[in-house]
Amino acid sequence: MRATVCQIDPSDANLVGQLAALGEHVRAHGSELVLLPEMSFSPWLAAAPEPDAERWSDAVQAHELQIARLAELGAPNVLGTRPIVNDVGSRRNEAYLWTQASGEAVGVREKYYLPDEDGFWEHSWYDRGDRSFPTARAGAALVGVQICTEMWFLEWARRYGAARVDVLCVPRATPRGSTDKWIAGGRTAAVCSGAFCLSSNLSGPPGVGADCGGVGWIIDPDGEVIATTSDEEPFATVDIDLGIARHSKSTYPRYVRD
Q1: Which terminus of the chain has a lower count of CB atoms within 10 Å, N or C?
Q2: Is the pTM of this model over 0.90?
Q3: Does 256 fall in a domain?
Q4: What was the pLDDT predicted at 258?
């Protein structure tokens, strides 16, 4: 499977141009799976400590607008997260999978582990979803999703390995200066799950909002970093061998029983 990760500046001034450039990259490389950053179609809401229902509503609409245009990217499968309001009025951060076959974005699961600190006031802004980590099917790949902070709860990477996922997707909004720590976590999650770990991150000018620092990655099941993004190269595409992920489930440390 040919997979693409990216870093995107969600600011009103830059988003449209960056999505157009991403589309050009995806079509040129024939990407089959594109991973977007966490809530990538509007400025990062949780940078502010006080939640704002109107801003949340605006972000919901912005995501709906861009998701309706995902066919323009030219990939058959696109995974990201979006702000939603459920039937009882609870705000959530939902991972979705858009497929070309259906033309729709289907919810996969909602973020459960929520930080609450400077720049990342997520627990203040929205509610946690169920403590559930189901899989989804993206073309030939069985996919699991851990949204940003959830990557550090490695027991779920291990459980995704037991569920035999091929790809572990980690959409992020993480700050500049923490890249080495996050890549270390991504390498560990790949080894625990025996899956390719893909991550895309928000980016932006230094010191603005949550100061998200970009750097997406593709890491193989043995923890080797295959590709990363940067300010100079905001998109990265790699052919990943799903057979390697499937074989990895029978190798160390994945075969060791709980």
Answers
A1: C
A2: yes
A3: no
A4: 87
DSSP 3-state of 25: helix
| Full 3-state SS string of 49-110 | CCCCHHHHHHHHHHHHHHHCCHHHHCCCEEEEEEEEECCCCCEEEEEEEEECCCCEEEEEEE
b/e string for 51-87 if b means 16 or more Cβ within 10 A?
eeeeebeebbebbeebbeebeebbbbbbbbbbbbeee
Q: What pLDDT is stored for residue 16 in this prediction?
A: 96
The rounded distance, in Å, linking the Cα atoms of 234 and 167 is 21
User: Do the Cβ atoms of 167 and 144 come closer than 8 Å?
Assistant: yes
Residue 67 included in any domain:
yes
253 within some domain: no
CATH number for 109: 3.60.110.10
196: nearest Cα among 163, 172, 170, 171: 170
- Token readout for 105 is 């974005």
Strand-pair category, 225-228 with 235-239? unpaired
Domain count, the chain: 1
Q: Which two tokens stand for residue 238?
A: 């790699």
Structure tokens at 110: 């909602």
Q: Which residues of the chain fall short of a pLDDT of 50?
A: none
55: Cα within 13 Å, side-chain hemisphere: 13
Q: Which domain holds residue 120?
A: 2-248
- pLDDT at residue 95, as a whole number: 98
